[in-house]
């Protein structure tokens, strides 16, 4: 039997590759794909995505319609940009689209997708959702933290009053009050005050959160073109790993403090959300055991998720009100009529303030639109 020559082997390989490409092409012709721009080899449509990806995608949707297909490197991306498409993705086929893609941000900043935000849809995610609805964010527990929100809001107003003759950067004050509230609800104490035994300085704590928000939303080239991921061309993975080490050091300290406080206390009553999570970690009846790294990942989610969104929403609302004096006047009149000038607004008063409630909803609608 003759040994195959190199030309014959090369021809066989080329024929095999040709058949594979042909079959792939024929299979694609049978699929009714959404319209979209023609992708380039290797990079796909990444050349069409600018520094503000959501705006680039919006501009493309104006050309290709409410549902379109893009290609980010090696991965197809289907984009829906209408009420009907949102309903299809988020309601009709919500289970199909429930999981986020496994990208570097989830791997390196949330203990390998162990948190609520990045974990794939399944028993672990469903258990986390139940924990949030039934325990962490139950009406009873949130009501029990009202005194924290009241104290921190009063402290914020006091600081603003003392700065009344100076230029005030409102976002900084709003971020601080949100962070203080969330820290006390989740961790049991504030980490924006300088103390002798602080594991991080207030400034470092805020910078860690800012870095987490940034890295969670960056467009990392390695996520789209996996075979060049190891190069870390933009330096994002290096920053994610460094941030992960800082957060882990901080969260280990937080958990050790809580475990020491709970040790030896019979029928210990949880004082904050970390206490609740640690009690879940000891619960043998859970469908999926909550490991220590899961407790840390959930804690990080709770801190980050409750800080930036609240502060930015209030900042947007005040910005829009200041542009419209007639709206400011009506809101003030409603407060004077319902609350008066002898006391502060309380959470129970919100249901009696329909105009201000409408302002909040319009702020959300308007600013979501403006992002596009």
Automatic annotation (TrEMBL):
Its cofactor is heme. Signal peptide: none annotated. Keywords: Heme, Iron, Membrane, Metal-binding, Monooxygenase, Oxidoreductase, Transmembrane, Transmembrane helix. Pfam families: p450. One of its GO terms (biological process) is secondary metabolite biosynthetic process. One of its GO terms (molecular function) is heme binding. CDD domains: CYP71_clan. The chain crosses the membrane at residues 6-26. Belongs to the cytochrome P450 family. This is Flavonoid 3'-monooxygenase. It comes from Quercus suber (Cork oak).
């Amino acid at each position: 039997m003759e040994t195959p020559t190199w030309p014959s082997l090369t021809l066989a390989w080329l024929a095999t590759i040709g058949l594979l490409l042909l079959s792939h092409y024929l299979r694609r012709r049978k699929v009714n794909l959404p319209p979209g721009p023609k992708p380039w080899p290797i990079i796909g449509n990444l050349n069409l995505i600018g520094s503000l990806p959501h705006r680039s995608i919006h501009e493309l949707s104006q050309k290709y319609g409410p549902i379109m297909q893009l290609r980010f490197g090696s991965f197809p991306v289907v984009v829906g940009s209408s009420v009907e498409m949102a309903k299809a993705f988020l309601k009709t086929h919500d289970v199909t689209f429930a999981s986020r893609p496994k990208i570097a941000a989830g791997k390196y900043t949330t203990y390998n997708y162990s948190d609520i935000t990045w974990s794939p849809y399944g028993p672990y995610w469903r258990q986390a959702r139940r924990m949030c609805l039934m325990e962490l964010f139950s009406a009873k527990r949130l009501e029990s933290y009202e005194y924290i929100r009241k104290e921190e809001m009063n402290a914020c107003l006091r600081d603003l009053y003392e700065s009344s003759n100076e230029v005030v950067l409102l976002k900084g004050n709003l971020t601080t009050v949100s962070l203080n509230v969330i820290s006390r609800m989740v961790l049991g104490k504030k980490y924006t005050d300088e103390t002798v035994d602080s594991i991080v300085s207030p400034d470092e704590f805020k910078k860690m959160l800012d870095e987490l928000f940034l890295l969670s939303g960056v467009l990392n080239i390695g996520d789209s073109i996996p075979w060049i991921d190891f190069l870390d061309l933009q330096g994002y993975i290096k920053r994610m790993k460094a941030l992960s080490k800082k957060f882990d050091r901080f969260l280990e300290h937080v958990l050790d403090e809580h475990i020491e406080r709970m040790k030896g206390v019979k029928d210990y009553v949880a004082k904050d959300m970390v206490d609740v999570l640690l009690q879940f970690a000891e619960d043998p009846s859970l469908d999926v055991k909550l490991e220590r790294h899961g407790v840390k990942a959930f804690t990080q989610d709770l801190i980050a998720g409750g800080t930036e969104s609240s502060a930015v929403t209030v900042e947007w609302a005040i910005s829009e009100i200041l542009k419209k004096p007639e709206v400011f006047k009506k809101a003030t009149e409603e407060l004077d009529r319902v609350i008066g000038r002898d006391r502060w607004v309380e959470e129970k008063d919100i249901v009696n303030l329909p105009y201000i409630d409408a302002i909040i909803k319009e702020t959300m609608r308007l600013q979501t639109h403006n992002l596009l």
